TrEMBL record:
It comes from the Bacteria. Keywords: Membrane, Transmembrane, Transmembrane helix. Residues 30-96 form the Type IV pilin Tt1218-like domain. This is Type IV pilus modification protein PilV. The chain crosses the membrane at residues 6-28. Signal peptide: none annotated. InterPro entries: N_methyl_site, Pilus_4_PilV, Tt1218-like_dom. The lineage of its organism: Bacteria, Pseudomonadati, Pseudomonadota, Gammaproteobacteria, Chromatiales. The gene is pilV.
Amino acid sequence: MRLQHGFSLVEVLVTLVIFKIGLLGALLSQTIAIRQVQDATQRTISVALAQGLLNEMRANPQLSQVLGPRIDSDIALPSLPDCSVGASCTITDVAAVQAHSWLNQLQQYNRLSLQQPQFCLRSAATGVNLSTSWQQKSSAQSGVVADCAVGNGRSGFALQNGGH
């Protein structure tokens, strides 16, 4: 009788099934990691935009009146005032330029990675409260909600400006 060398077909199939299960587990973990990176990127962009807005409002309190209480990416850019060398600009004109610049930045991020962002300004005795929310990329649900609410696939946070 001759000695057999090598593997049987059943052993090869069992090895392939185990290998395939391991690859599927690695693929699942990669998918979860990509979702978490997308959510972290959206949160980072939102924090940067919110901090930028609060800093601009601290520098010029008229900005909150130009922007209004609720801001989303569909809002029209305000017209830029004529502040040439010969003409002087009022604080409201400067606020219009600030609003134009900030909203332009918001619209660019909306096209790139931040989906359906909303910013809500509320005046309080201690300063200005800024709430923001956005649609998560990993969520199948969509839709804009009132008052920057979170839930149903939307993430968000609130910041408080300690005064102007």
